[in-house]
Design a protein that fits this description.
By secondary structure, this protein is an all-beta fold. Helix content is 0%, strand content 57%. The protein has a five-stranded antiparallel sheet, with no helix packed on it. InterPro entries: CSP_DNA-bd (IPR002059), NA-bd_OB-fold (IPR012340).
Length: 58
C-alpha cells in the first residue's frame, strides 16, 4: 500500500485529495476512508487514478 498525506478535504462535497510520497495527487471520497483530517498520514490502495481503502497511520 502506498503512503501519503491528506492534502485537502471538503466536508460539503465529501471528497478530498491525497498527496503520495512522490508528490502525485489522488482523489478520494468519504466512503473510502477512515479519516478526513488534513495532514493525516495515510496508507491507501490505488484503483485507476483514485485512492481507496484509506487508512490512518499513527
Amino acid at each position: 500500500m502506498p503512503l501519503g498525506r491528506i492534502a485537502v478535504y471538503n466536508d460539503a462535497d465529501g471528497v478530498g485529495i491525497i498527496t503520495d510520497e512522490h508528490g502525485e495527487r489522488r482523489p478520494f471520497s468519504c466512503m473510502e476512508t477512515q479519516t478526513t483530517r488534513e495532514g493525516q498520514r495515510v496508507a491507501f490502495e490505488v484503483i485507476g487514478a483514485k485512492a481507496t481503502n484509506v487508512v490512518a497511520i499513527r
